[in-house]
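User: Quick one: structure for sequence A, then sequence B.

Assistant: Sequence A:
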Amino acid sequence: MHIKNKTIIITGASKGIGKTLALELAEFSCNLVLIARSENELLEIQASILNAKKSNCSIFVGDISDLSFLDLVVSKTIEKFKQIDFLINNAGIGTFGSIQKYTEEEFCTLFDTNVKGSFFLSQKVLPFMKNAKSGHIITLISDVGKRVFDTGALYCGTKYAQEGFTSAMRMEVRPFNIKISNIYSGLVDSDFHATKKGSKEQGNWLKTEDMAKSIIFVMNQPKNVVIDELMIHPIFQEY
């Protein structure tokens, strides 16, 4: 396994895909660094991982749009684990409705979390990856980074922005042997949506376990192989 003993930062790790991914990766003797705003949930995940005694786990509670917080995360991670091998940009929020209803505050909140956070955390880990001439940044963008839908102007805008900067970053860092992968998912049974996780409405959607296994597949490719993009949908959903 190429992920064994690697140091992996995951944002949005307190629930949904991020939580499931962290628990799946914990089986592979990793150094996990989990970021979210929900302290109690992060503490529960950390305890579960450390009690299993298969992986190390550090947690950081904060807002990924706060650049001083990101500096702290990166510096403490390097201090403890010496290297950053993977960054999983998973944190994201959504607001939906007519374009006429959005406020400036809502606009800034979505772009801060979905775009600013992933942009600057990627920026801050890259010097260490460049120095090591290896590393892998994976961003969960959603399939609406490739298409749009009614009532999704603001959310789709953030995802197109992620698609733009990560694709350009891929070209910039490839000479340093750094991998950049974008994952575009369809409907996932999680707490992201208006209906609750596990509800009948979400019964045939992708599960967070499906997403975690797909991400690990992307992470676990040989050094000479990179999956630039992965589009994944439940079978019923057209693309």
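Sequence B:
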Amino acid sequence: MFETLTNEEERGQVGIGTLIVFIAMVLVAAIAAGVLINTAGFLQTQAEATGEESTAQVTNNVDIVSSVGIDTETSPSDDTTIEQINLVLKKSPGSDPIDLTQTEIQYVGPGTVTTTQLSDGDVNLVGISGGSDILESQSDRVEVQITLAGSNDFSATSALTAGDEVEITLTTASGAQTFETLRVSDPLSTPEDL
């Protein structure tokens, strides 16, 4: 029933071999656990950053309160074109402060597409209430004045006539976009609500 060991050295060697295998398994498990913990931490950090960016794209946006086309020609015989578009902007509900100098405007009009920053000097920013560059509170209003066919990025554009349609896209620094389609009515009145 019991086996008698005649060589005591054999028993010690079996114990050391088992101990070496056990230590190797513990080391492999520790390395695998370290890799898993590092990967989980990296994925968590990346998921948090993606969530913050996605939230900013949805919430950090501007709203267009009003849009008006203006005939800036002083000649009474030229009351049939619009040479300037004025947009009044406010920040969307729940939005962080929006720096309008970091906002891009894209103008798609009859036969032309123009893209520029609101800070390039091609567009005038006029503060109505609050600051003129940053929309901080819900009551802040800024007027964006776009001069068509001027000596700026909009020089390739032409004055708008009755029946023309313009699409304007405002893109904030976080990537949120606001789209507005403006149509010139017939007959044309000055100023013209678009």
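The chain has two domains: 7-59, 61-193. The first strand starts at residue 62 and ends at 70.

User: Thanks, that's what I needed.
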